[in-house]
């Protein structure tokens, strides 16, 4: 369904300090590339080329601004992955936007955490499986 998701950032080094642990340690994604000259970086699931998750400076050179109502949600296989990812996000410059927990208003087994990256982009890690 998705080819890639690109998240704009303002400070590439700061963004790498936030996203590397979240994506690699928290969610188990693999780094596909890091290009400091552009700057941008991408991650993917092991053994598949798509979808790709990317961070970088906006292509048009204009300043990045997070969008109201926009969010990227990562799928977690277990609730422990949600908890671990949230803790890594908080430890690396993230801002809480909803601590890990059940959200029965979405569905019976929805367990998610919401947070913002250092640039204010809203992110979520969600598990839909029963505990």
Number of domains: 1
Shape: globular
The CATH topology corresponds to 2,3-Dihydroxybiphenyl 1,2-Dioxygenase, domain 1
Q: β content, as a range?
A: 25-35%
Strand order of the largest sheet: 1-4-3-2
Q: Given the structure, what is the number of helices? A: 2
Helix amount: 10-25%
Could you report the average pLDDT, rounded to the nearest whole number?
96
Radius of gyration equals 14 Å
What pattern of helices and strands is seen along the backbone? EHEEEEHEEE
Counting DSSP E segments of at least 2 residues, the number of strands comes to: 8
State the CATH class: Alpha Beta
Helix/strand-derived category reads alpha/beta
Structure description:
By secondary structure, this protein is of the alpha/beta class. It has one domain: 2,3-Dihydroxybiphenyl 1,2-Dioxygenase, domain 1. 21% of the residues lie in helices and 34% in strands. The protein has two helices and eight strands. It has helices at residues 12-26, 79-91; strands at 4-8, 30-35, 40-44, 52-56, 72-75, 95-102, 111-116, 122-127. The chain has a four-stranded mixed beta sheet with strand order 1-4-3-2, with helices on one face. A hairpin with an 8-residue loop joins strand 6 (95-102) and strand 7 (111-116). The longest helix has 15 residues, at 12-26. It starts with a strand and ends with a strand. 27% of the residues are buried. The model has no long low-confidence stretch (mean pLDDT 96).
